[in-house]
Structures are given as C-alpha cells and as structure tokens.
Amino acid sequence: MTLYDPKGNRLYLNAEERAAFLHVARQRPARDRTLCETLHYTGCRPSELIEITPARIDLSGGAVTIRSLKKRKDRSGEQKAVYRAIPVPPDYLDTLNIAHGIRETQKSRKLAHVPIWALSRVRVWQIVKDVMIEAKIVDAGHRSPKGLRHGFGVNAVVKGIPLHMLQKWMGHAQLSTTTIYADAIGKEEQDIAAKMWG
C-alpha cells in the first residue's frame, strides 16, 4: 500500500479537498450526506460502511463500531470477526440520529441489526465520486473512496494522533501498514514539521 502512484501523484485527499468534499456532501439528501460523513469521519471502506447497523452506533459514547472486512485468522487458523470503535464528532452523530432515527431503531431487536445504507459498494463509490466531482476535486487517483480513506489517515497523523491509535481506527493488522500515513508530503508534511519548528 502506498500514498503515491507510480508517477508520484498523491492518492489521498488533502485537507482542502476533504473540506470541499464535506461541504458539498452536507448539501445532499440525508442518505448521501450521512454516508459521505461516515466515510469522512471514520475512514472506513465502502464495504465496511454498508454493514453498519443502528446497533453499532454509540450515541452516548460518541463512536461508530465497524467490522473489519480484511480477512483475519486466529491462532487455530479459523476466520475471526474483528471490530473497531471509532470516535466521531457529536454533531455528526446528531445528524445521523435525526436522518435515520438511530435511537428509535435501536429499540427494535430486528431493525437495530438492519444496515443503515441498503446499497452496494458500487453505488457507494458512485455517490462519493459524484460528490467529489461537484466539490471540484481534480480527476486523478485520489478522487475515490480510497482517496478519502487515505485522507483520513493523513489528517490523523497531521493532527498528532499516535500511529497505534490510527492503526486501531483504520483496522490495520500491522502497524507497518499504518506508517505510510507518516509519509505525507506538501502542506501535510509542512504541518507535521511545523510542530517540530514551533
């Protein structure tokens, strides 16, 4: 995994692009808005997003629990489920609750376990791409859900989140995978370096 394509072009959204993406997403209908905000605030993959149920939204604890879909095996070689709780902003949770009736839905044993977004990965990808086009994000390798996920990782490093915490939030099995986010350049690298200069 890398943050750059073979020609050296970045594969992550920078801070300005992330802000533009969020601005446009917030003007969309509730389903698309909350979908985009969830990807933005959790750094999850589209395949992980479409599995999120109301039962996995912790409104009082301020977190969204994601099932990591990368295959993991325990010591016996059996497939194991790995979950990660990602802290998210209260305003986002309020929007999610209002748009999808999370608190009420959690009271129903049946509905609490029905995915919030009944969409395919392809449809999620199309929604994200449409928002990115409207946000005037340049047509390049970073204009994708993966670019949004990578942007989440880079932003976390810039904001000083410890790599072991980011590893947990992103669902990486190895810390070495997470360390790629410390390789950000440009304004992101300047922001990181500014902490050393200040």
Automatic annotation (TrEMBL):
Keyword DNA-binding belongs to the record: yes
InterPro entries assigned: DNA_brk_join_enz, Integrase-like_cat_sf, Integrase_catalytic, Tyrosine_recombinase_XerCD
SUPFAM superfamilies assigned: DNA breaking-rejoining enzymes
CDD domains: DNA_BRE_C
Keywords: DNA integration, DNA recombination, DNA-binding, Plasmid
GO molecular function terms noted in the UniProt entry: DNA binding
GO process annotations (BP): DNA integration; DNA recombination
Keyword DNA-binding part of the UniProt annotation: yes
Occurrences of domain Tyr recombinase (ranges): 8-195
Domain of life: Bacteria
Annotated family: Belongs to the 'phage' integrase family.
Protein name (Swiss-Prot/TrEMBL): Putative integrase
Lineage of the organism: Bacteria, Pseudomonadati, Pseudomonadota, Alphaproteobacteria, Rhodobacterales
